[in-house]
Amino acid sequence: MNKKILITGGAGFIGSHVVREFVVKYPNYQIINLDALTYAGNLENLKDIEDRPNYTFVKADITDQAAMNAVFKQYQPDGVIHLAAESHVDRSIADPTAFVMTNVIGTVNLLNAAHAIWKDNFGGKRFHHVSTDEVFGALGESGFFTEDTKYDPHSPYSASKASSDHFVRAYHDTYGLPIVLTNCSNNYGPNHFPEKLIPLCIHNILHDKPLPVYGDGKYTRDWLFVIDHAKAIDLVFHEGKDGDSYNVGGFNEWQNIDLIKELCRQMDVKLGREQGTAASLITFVKDRPGHDLRYAIDASKINAELGWSPSVTFEQGLSLTIDWFLSNQEWLDHVTTGDYQHYYNNQYHGA
Ligand code: NAD
Ligand code: TYD
């Protein structure tokens, strides 16, 4: 079946893997990648597929309702996979309004644009909202987030994503817009912007800079290899039940300090350095305000209903990720010029 699918945020970290997955796996689909190319968007992430005949790039900003209406009118997509967002918690603490604009208003603009062209015939249409487990708030030492866990966001980022999730459900319940949602745990892998923990530490080890550990380092995250997330999105987009949400996670919890030590160990091996070299850069710094203690996903629904489970172990995924960064140091240099140094020197890491 031929479909036209609009993927937003396709030049970013996760979006680039989703675009690649769809362009390569479905040559009879037309994939339209809509992205504003903010600091986090980079078309280098897609250079291996940019010449494929079923791929089109549109530079546009989802905060612009008229621009979204025009794109939907021109391309008439059957499906939307919405990933465009401001995605970094620390940035949301510094500038919450940018997160409201893109994550809340931008999502509502897309819902309006989809509703306007689909409202007379919802058949075969689907709006897939890609969201985060952070909407559920923080867990204590035990327990997991399920699809029924009550929303309890704490950071401006998670509050904006929770709000966008509510709007997506509201358009389903009010107008009948066909929707699905995925709420995923922390991703890692190639193309990950070096403001998030894993790529930031890889970057800093390569530049002999401090590895900033917030607070006591005992905060826990559930890490998933990004290509496994892209495969989960493919499954839910095609086979998920209308109106439902699916939690996606790696069954892979790590305290930050243990994760950084493991990363340091692997980096020393791969760089042929004496063990302990990278770990000597570990520096405990001021904690993030409102820092969520622990996230952990119960992914049994997507496993039972759609047969999804992660395809790589964390050991394999982390090794692949480090190898990618080591062979793509030009990419790292490109994305860390300009604003990046200014941001890090002033905001968080006191470098
Ligand atoms: P990212 O920051 O790497 O990429 C975001 C992309 O959106 C960039 O290409 C950027 O240019 C684009 N964008 C930002 N504002 C835009 C706007 N106003 N108009 C159009 N494009 C805009 O983010 P990511 O980590 O790839 O996350 C993608 C999605 O997945 C987000 O919705 C995020 O909330 C969600 N998510 C991320 C994670 C994670 O671990 N990174 C986990 C679960 C869910
Ligand atoms: P991050 O990668 O920003 O993802 P999120 O906040 O969305 O989970 O952070 C992952 C964890 O690592 C989180 O507990 C905050 C912590 N962290 C540090 O300790 N140091 C850092 O420099 C960064 C960026 C994060």
Automatic annotation (TrEMBL):
Residues 6-319 form the NAD(P)-binding domain. Its EC number is 4.2.1.46. Its cofactor is NAD(+). GO terms for molecular function: dTDP-glucose 4,6-dehydratase activity. It comes from the Bacteria. It catalyses: dTDP-alpha-D-glucose = dTDP-4-dehydro-6-deoxy-alpha-D-glucose + H2O. It holds the Pfam family GDP_Man_Dehyd. GO terms for biological process: nucleotide-sugar metabolic process. Keywords: Lyase, NAD. PANTHER family: DTDP-D-GLUCOSE 4,6-DEHYDRATASE-RELATED. NCBIfam families: dTDP_gluc_dehyt (TIGR01181). Belongs to the NAD(P)-dependent epimerase/dehydratase family. dTDP-glucose dehydratase subfamily. This is dTDP-glucose 4,6-dehydratase.
